[in-house]
Amino acid sequence: MKTIKNYTILLLFLFIVSCGYSPLVENQRNNFSIIEVTFEGDRKINNYISDQLKKVSSNNDNSTNYIIKVSSEYNKNIVNKDSKGNPKNFNLTIITKLIIQSSKSDEIEKTFEKSIPLKSKQKKITEKKLEEKYKENLSKTIAKEIIFYLNSL
User: Fold this and answer.
1) Measured between alpha carbons, how far is 85 from 89 in angstroms, rounded to an integer?
2) How many whole angstroms separate alpha carbon 62 and alpha carbon 67?
3) Which of 14, 112, 136, 151 is 20 to 30 A removed from 44 (C-alpha atoms)?
4) Residue 5's pLDDT band (boundaries 50, 70, 90)?
5) Do the beta carbons of residue 135 and residue 114 sit within 8 Å?
6) Alpha helices, DSSP H only, in the chain?
7) Whole-Å CA distances, 26 to 29, 33, 79, 137, 149
């Protein structure tokens, strides 16, 4: 009985290890190279996007070369207020506009937009830290979408 259990565990382990699974994003090879990037707008958002783009740009001979202009905008809108007129909920929105020039095609314009709700906190310091965390996460999500879009061109 014990040997059957051991064989079953061994077979399951071998099956899982040799199934050929690999994450889609990590296995993806980038077929583009960014020659020049210029940024306008919110500096923090642009820094997050720039960090992500630097990680994936390759300098292969077969890659498509891009010149990119990034314009980012951050909005914090009040969704509703309490009876005293104090904000209860906010909507954080990041809008990033891309202008892409490549050697193969004309100028391409693309807009990426992400938003997330934020509930007002009693301590404004906690609310500010949470807002900065959301801003970073949304920026990195937009950067991933930009990378995916550049790979699909």
Assistant:
1) 12
2) 16
3) 151
4) confident
5) no
6) 2-17, 24-27, 43-56, 124-152
7) 8, 17, 38, 19, 16
* Euclidean distance between CA atoms 76 and 142, whole angstroms: 17
Decide if 153 contacts 100 (C-beta within 8 A): yes
Q: Tokens at residue 35, please?
A: 């020659």
Tens of pLDDT, residues 77-113: 999 999 998 899 999 999 999 999 987 778 899 999 9
Amino acid at 141: T
- Tokens 């950067």 belong to 143
Cα 130 to the center of its chain, rounded Å: 18
Cβ proximity of 98 and 86 under 8 Å:
no
pTM, to two decimals: 0.77
